[in-house]
Amino acid sequence: MTTLSMQAGEPMLEFRLAYLRAIARSWADPAFATTLLAADDIQPLLVEQFGLTTVWPKLDIHLENSVNPSEQTLWKPELTGGWIGMDDRFEIVLPTRPTDGATEALAAFYQIFPDLLGPVGDVEQKPASNGVMMAAMPTDLGIPGGGADSMLAFGGVVLRAIALAWTDANFKEALLNPPGGDATSVLSQWLGYNCPFNFVIQFKANPNLKWEDGKWHQKNADGSPIKNRIVLNYPNAPKDEPLRPIALTSYNNTGPAYPFTC
C-alpha cells in the first residue's frame, strides 16, 4: 500500500502562495475577509484553508486594515501604476540581559532566532483528496538567502542590536523608543544598517523572555508563547471587479522590499 504525502517546500514561498490565495478569496467573500482580519495569526487559517505545509511557530503574522482610508492599502493604477499604502511592520521582542552568562545566552538566542521568523515547523498533512502527491517546492530561489539584503542578514543585525542594548543604556532607550516609533534610523545610526525592507521596525522589551538554568524561558506569565510579530497591511479589493486579477498579480510583484508578498 502506498501512502501519499505532501512534502513541505521552501517556507517563504509556501507562505506567499497560500497568502495570495487567502487575499483572492477575501476579495470575493466578505465573511472570510472578516475572519482573516480578525486572526491574531493567519498561519493556522492558511494551513486549514489553503494547505500551507510549513509555519513559523514562534511568529505571529497579522493582517491590519486601518479604519482611516488615507492609511489603507489601495489599488491606484491611474495615480501610481499600482498599489499605495503604509509600510508593514516588524515587531521584535528584546530579550532580558542575563545577570551572568550573557555571551552563551546570546549565542543560544541566535540559535533559536537566526532571523526574526524563528524556527520552521512542518505541518502534518492529510493525503490529497484527488490522489495526487504534491511535490516539494523549489528551494533554490534564495528566499531567504544569506545576502546583504536577506532576512538572514537582518537577523544578524538584530543580534548585534540585542548585544548593544544589553551593554549601552542609551542605545537601548533609542531602540525601544525611536523617533516616530520606527527603529530603522536607529539601526542605521548606530550599526550602519540600511534596511532593504519597506517595514517599520519596532523592538519591544519583555521581562518574561529571560535566560534561566542554561536556557531561554519563552513563555509569558499567562503561559502563552512569546513571539515576534509581523503586521501586513491588508490590500483592499479594487472596486472594479474585472481588474482584480491584474491587481492581485501586481500585489504579488511588489519587489524584494516586501518579502512576504513579492
UniProtKB/TrEMBL annotation:
Taxonomy, superkingdom: Bacteria
Protein name: Ribosomally synthesized peptide (Two-chain TOMM family)
Organism expressing this protein natively: Rivihabitans pingtungensis
Taxonomic placement: Bacteria, Pseudomonadati, Pseudomonadota, Betaproteobacteria, Neisseriales
